[in-house]
Specification:
Number of strands: 9
Shape: globular
Low-confidence stretches: none
Distance between the termini: 51 Å
Strand order of the largest sheet: 3-4-2-1-5-9-8
Radius of gyration: 19 Å
Order of helices and strands: HHEHEHHEEHHEHEEHEEH
Mean pLDDT: 95
Strand content: 15-25%
Number of domains: 1
Oligomer: single chain
Number of helices: 10
C-alpha cells in the first residue's frame, strides 16, 4: 500500500461505497435518463471501496439505460514533443518520438494525466470514443453516437465538437471532488468568446489510408486560468447544485448554464 493511500485511509472516517456515492449524487439532483459529462478527483472523495469502478457504477446506476455518461479521454502524450513542458524532452529525441510512437487508436491509446476514473471508463463495456488523437471524449449510453460523431482535428472543442452536442441537448456537468478549473465544457465557451485565438502548431501519429503517418495540424490556444471563477459566478446566480460526495464535495449544473454564464462573464470583463 502506498504512502498516499495510507494517508487517504487516515483521513477517512469509513469506506465510501457505491451505495454512499449513489445516495449523495441523488441528493445532489442527478436523475435517471440524464446525459452527464463527469469530472472526478477520486482521492478527494475519501477512501472509496472499489476505487474508480465504484464511481462509474454509482453514476451509471442512477442514469439507468436511458442515460448517457461522457468523460474527457485526452491523450496529450500523442502531441508533438516539441511542445512538451511537463517534462520537456531533449530536442534530439523529437524525430525518433515522432517516428516511433504508436498511432492513435480509440481502443488501444490510453488516456494521459487525467486520472484513473476516465481511464477505466474508456475501457468500460459499450463505451465509445471520439476520433481525436489528443482531445477525445468517451461516452456510454443511447446518445453516445450523436455526441461523439464529429470532432475536427483542428478544432476539437468548437461548434462541431462533442461539447457542442452536449450543449445542444443540455447535458449536465457533474464535478466530483474537483472545481470548475477542470471543467472541460468551458473550452466551448472559450471558442465562442475568443474565436480568433492564437493557434499553436501540433502533430500526432495517426492511421491515414491504412498507413501510420505523422499528421501536422494546429489547435486554438487554450487558457484555463479564467475557468475557476466561473464556479462562484454560477453559485451567486443560483445555477449550481452542491452536496457532499463521500468525504468530498460535488457540484451539478446545466451544461448550457455553465457555458452561457462563462460567455457572458468573460465578454463583460475582457479589456
Amino acid at each position: 500500500m502506498s504512502a498516499k493511500e495510507t494517508a487517504l485511509i487516515a483521513r477517512s472516517a469509513h469506506p465510501i461505497t457505491t451505495e454512499h456515492l449513489r445516495h449523495d449524487m441523488q441528493a445532489l439532483g442527478l436523475r435517471n435518463g440524464e446525459t452527464v459529462i463527469l469530472h472526478c478527483a477520486l482521492s478527494k472523495l475519501g477512501w472509496v471501496s472499489g476505487g474508480a469502478r465504484s464511481i462509474i457504477e454509482a453514476v451509471l446506476q442512477i442514469l439507468g439505460p436511458d442515460g448517457t455518461l461522457v468523460m474527457p479521454a485526452q491523450s496529450g502524450d500523442l502531441s508533438d514533443p516539441a511542445s512538451w513542458q511537463n517534462p520537456p524532452v531533449p530536442r534530439a529525441w523529437w524525430p525518433q518520438i515522432r517516428q516511433s510512437t504508436p498511432p492513435f487508436d480509440p481502443r488501444l491509446t490510453p488516456t494521459y494525466g487525467i486520472g484513473r476514473v476516465p481511464e477505466l471508463f474508456r475501457l468500460w463495456p459499450e463505451t465509445q470514443r471520439s476520433f481525436h488523437p489528443t482531445c477525445s471524449f468517451s461516452a456510454c449510453g443511447p446518445l453516445a453516437d450523436i455526441i461523439l460523431k464529429e470532432q475536427p482535428l483542428d478544432d476539437p472543442f468548437g461548434e462541431s465538437s462533442p461539447l457542442a452536442r452536449l450543449y445542444e441537448i443540455d447535458a449536465r456537468v457533474l464535478m466530483l471532488g474537483v472545481g470548475f478549473q477542470s471543467c472541460t465544457a468551458l473550452h466551448l465557451a472559450e471558442r465562442r468568446v475568443w474565436p480568433q485565438a492564437r493557434r499553436l502548431a501540433d502533430g500526432s501519429p495517426m492511421i491515414v489510408n491504412g498507413e501510420r503517418v505523422w499528421v501536422e495540424y494546429s489547435l486554438p490556444e487554450t487558457e484555463i486560468a479564467p475557468f475557476a471563477p466561473i464556479e462562484e459566478v454560477l453559485r451567486n446566480e443560483r445555477k449550481l447544485s452542491e452536496h457532499k460526495a463521500g468525504s468530498g464535495n460535488a457540484m451539478l449544473a446545466s451544461c448550457r448554464d455553465v457555458i452561457d454564464t462563462a460567455v457572458t462573464h468573460w465578454r463583460s470583463n475582457r479589456a
